[in-house]
Amino acid sequence: MDNSVIFIVLLPALISGFASAIIASQKGRDGFGWFLVGVFFAPIAIPFALIANPIRGNIESLKTCDYCRELVNHKAIKCPHCHSELTNYSEKTSEPKKDDKERATGQTSARDRVLAKAEELGFEVYAPEGSSRIVFRKNGKKHEFLILKRAQDFLERQ
């Protein structure tokens, strides 16, 4: 096969890949994936990238869970990842902060209850503030959890 034939076939595929990647990444989509689509489906990749809906607008409708730091729907009242109750950010200005509210009512969060139960059962607990990571150690065994519900289930089985 002649080098000019390879150049004639490969150059439009690469140009289509780069163009698709740039267009798609400006719309908040995966640039590398669209590059591959552009290379393998050169004639149709650019039009599809042009008509793809932007996804960055959806990020505005998300909020971060206070416990596991995952993005969840802004209307959610319970995190689907760690199953903790979520604060409503639209009401956050009118309500006192969650920590202040807990101190005032004497209630504790689900995370605090799990950590207290682990200590009652004799586990050494490592749970950095602001992280969803929880580590229990007992008798030389280490049990690590990233989801609060799994740590809770583990403690219930003990």
Features:
158 residues, alpha+beta, Rec A Protein, domain 2, two-stranded antiparallel sheet, 5 strands, 49% helix, Zinc ribbon domain-containing protein
What do these coordinates show?
By secondary structure, the protein is of the alpha+beta class. Among the domains are: 53 residues; 49 residues, Rec A Protein, domain 2. The chain has 7 helices and 5 strands. The strands form 2 sheets. A 3-stranded antiparallel β-sheet has the order 3-4-5, covered by helices on one side. The protein has a two-stranded antiparallel ribbon with strand order 1-2. Helix 1 runs antiparallel to helix 2, helix 2 packs antiparallel against helix 3 and helix 6 packs parallel to helix 7. It is elongated and about 75 Å long. About 5% of the residues have low confidence. This is Zinc ribbon domain-containing protein.
Low-confidence stretches: 89-96
Overall pLDDT level:
79
> Major beta sheet, specifics?
3 strands, antiparallel
Q: What is the CA-CA span between the terminal residues?
A: 69 Å
Task: Compute the CA-based radius of gyration.
Answer: 25 Å
Strands, total number: 5
Order of adjacent strands in the largest pleated sheet: 3-4-5
